[in-house]
Structure formats: C-alpha cells, structure tokens
Amino acid sequence: MDIEIPFLIAFVFLALLLRLIRSYITSSRTKPSPALRLPPGPWQLPLIGSLHHLLLSRFSDLPHWALREMSGTYGPLMMLRFGSVPTLVVSSAEAAREVMRTHDLAFCNRHLGVTLETISCGGKDIICSPYNAHWRELRKLCMLEIFSQRRVLSFRPVREAEDIFSAGSETSSTVLVWAMSELVKNPQVMYKAQSEVRETFKGQDKITEDDPVKLRYLQLVIKET
C-alpha cells in the first residue's frame, strides 16, 4: 500500500506532463492567422516559454537588466512567453508612447489567471473588468460615491490612522521597495533624505497627509525611482 501511493502520484504527474506537451505541440503546429503580426522575440521552450532566457542571463538576479540586454538584440518591442502567458515587453520611450497613448485601448485589459478570475467573479469588478460599458459605469460610481472630494475628506481620519487603501497599496509599496533599495546603494543620498526628514519634523509627534509636501528632496528621490 505504501508503494502504490507514490506510484499513483508519479503516474498522474506524468500523464499531466504528457498532456501539456501534447497540447503545446498541437498548438505550435496550428498555422497562425496571416493578419497576426507579432513582434520578434527569443526562441521558446515547452511549458516555461521564455523564462530560461532570464534565468540563464548574466543579469539573472536583475530581470529588468536582462530584458534590457535582450532588447538590444530583438528591438524595443519583444514578444516573450512567461509560462503560458504571452507578454509584450516595451523598452523605449517611443514604443511606450505608442502602447500607452496611441493604442491604449488595445492594451488596457488585464490578463486574468485562474486566481484573479475566481476572486473577481469572472472579471466583473473594477480592477479586473475589461474596458467596456460595465467598467465605465463602475468608474462613474466610484468617482461619484467613493472618490469625490467630499468622500475623500470624510475618510481622512481613517487614512491617517491606518495612511493606506488596499486597492492602491501595491503600486505604493513597489515604489517604496525600489526607493529603499536605491537609497541603500547610495548612502550619501540616503543620509541627505534622512536629514531632511529629521530636520523638517523635528519635535513633531504626528505626521498628517499635508506634511510630505514639505519634503522636497525626498519627493525628487521618489520621482527618480
């Protein structure tokens, strides 16, 4: 009985692996649509796609440097595949302007994995919903009922007690992590930022939403990040 269970697990895993490989081979043999013109990109492997190019790069610990190095070979627009997810990598200001301004409607939808699709009830909330009439109605309700000036001011005591919104915390935390990383690498800049904070709020027990405006140098650090 003890031998049968590991054997069964190994058999199920092997069957799933063979099925994935078979589906990949079948999809790769399917002729692409002649109207589909994809950007260039490195060669891919089954299941993992382009991940091995990042892991085997000399900048494997810095993925954004590895992507920049690849963009020197394949251009400012690259098509990679991280696992089963096709990913467009934009590496120049001109290409970013085309994606974010000229053709923003074509790129504004969020990819829904299994987890996000389950949490968002099939992409029906404002974060995961595709750009359509439903999303515009949700945005209108949020602007009128949640993010109006009156509502924002009424929530100010709560923000100061807790100075976070769960829906908007990811971007802020990411910027904070990068800013702290760069400050650690540049001790002189970190010392100057710390001195500004200590001098500006010297003797002050509580910091309000209006106080960070006084930190001119720290704002430059954040913008640079």
Can you describe this structure?
With 225 residues, the chain is mainly alpha-helical. The protein folds into three domains: 41-108, no CATH class; 110-154, no CATH class; 165-224, no CATH class. Helices cover 57% and strands 5% of the residues. The protein contains twelve helices and two strands. It has helices spanning 4-29, 51-55, 63-74, 93-102, 104-107, 114-119, 133-145, 149-154, 156-162, 169-185, 187-200, 216-224; strands at 77-82, 85-90. Strands 1-2 form a two-stranded antiparallel sheet. A hairpin with a 2-residue loop joins β1 and β2 (85-90). It is extended and about 65 Å long. The mean pLDDT is 81.
The order of strands across the largest sheet is: 1-2
What percent of residues adopt helix (DSSP H or I)?
55-70%
Distance between the termini: 58 Å
**Count of the domains:** 3
Shape: extended
Give the structural class. mainly alpha
Strand content: 5-15%
Q: What is the helix/strand order?
A: HHHEEHHHHHHHHH
The number of helical runs is: 12
Largest sheet: 2 strands, antiparallel
Summarize the structure.
With 225 residues, this protein is mainly α.
Features:
2 strands, 12 helices, 225 residues, single chain, 5% strand, extended, mainly alpha, two-stranded antiparallel sheet
